[in-house]
Design brief:
nucleotide-binding; AAA+_ATPase; elongated; about 240 residues; alpha/beta; 11 helices; ATP-binding protein; 5-stranded parallel sheet
Length: about 240
């Protein structure tokens, strides 16, 4: 049966503190610690426990394509992976400035894995992340227009710390999609960061968007304050 202290910790949902208290009692280390030392250990454990729970929740809600981390990446300059750039991105500072990250390269060269790793790192920093296939996002926006929740959805996207759009450019955008994409980028410009992943070089995105005026506005907001990663080499899938 839990003792009165454990009962209160359970009631207050202080799970990290409870686990640490149990460990201290089992190992009898609580007898050699002062009240302040024991309390400090328990508080540290509670902070770590809450950070871990928040990370797991953020990672689960993000919907990443791959379970990936920057530490697992094979750094190879010949493939376009610059260790200095990745170190810079790992700090998360780009998200504080609302800078974009544009990842391009051929099919199977690791673009989506890299984007997932950046998203994972953002969750480590406690940021809210949303990962979408671009076409599925466009379909989602079409659906929320029909059910009348489009403004709520755009507001949610505008408040998301890091938005990752994968497979951009596989199809051309129709007129409504052009406007929707413009609204997404405009809402986030200079405030929240966006990662865009594409098989096409950035120079071809103008044609994908289609409407010259809208394309100019979108690319102006994305390209000028962005980190560019162009992955090279043959498909990694061939080596698996």
């Amino acid at each position: 049966m839990p003792n009165p202290i454990e009962t209160q910790l359970i009631k207050l949902r202080l799970h990290g503190m409870r686990q640490t208290l149990a460990t201290l009692q089992e190992t009898r280390k609580n007898q050699s610690l002062s009240l302040t030392e024991g309390l400090e250990l328990m508080l540290q454990a509670e902070v770590q426990e809450r950070d871990n729970r928040r990370f797991k929740r953020l990672e689960s809600n993000a919907g990443f394509r791959y379970r990936a981390s920057l530490e697992e990446l094979s750094l190879d300059r010949t493939r376009g992976l610059d260790d200095m750039l990745l170190t810079t991105l790992a700090t998360g500072e780009y998200m504080e400035h609302g800078d974009a990250v544009l990842i391009t390269g051929a099919t199977g060269c690791g673009k989506s894995y890299l984007a997932s790793a950046l998203g994972h790192q953002a969750c480590v920093h406690g940021k809210k992340v949303a990962y979408f296939n671009t076409q599925k996002l466009m379909l989602k926006i079409k659906m929320v227009r029909l059910d009348g929740t489009v403004l709520k959805f755009f507001d949610k996207m505008a408040r998301t710390d890091l938005l990752i759009l994968d497979d951009f450019g596989l199809t051309h955008l129709d007129k409504q999609q052009q406007m929707d994409f413009m609204e997404l980028i405009e809402d986030r410009h200079g405030k929240k960061s966006t990662v865009i992943v594409s098989q096409l070089p950035v120079s071809s995105w103008y044609d994908v968007i289609g409407e010259p005026t809208i394309a100019d506005a979108i690319l102006d907001r994305l390209v000028h304050a962005s980190y560019r990663i162009e992955l090279k080499g043959e498909s990694l899938r061939k080596k698996m």
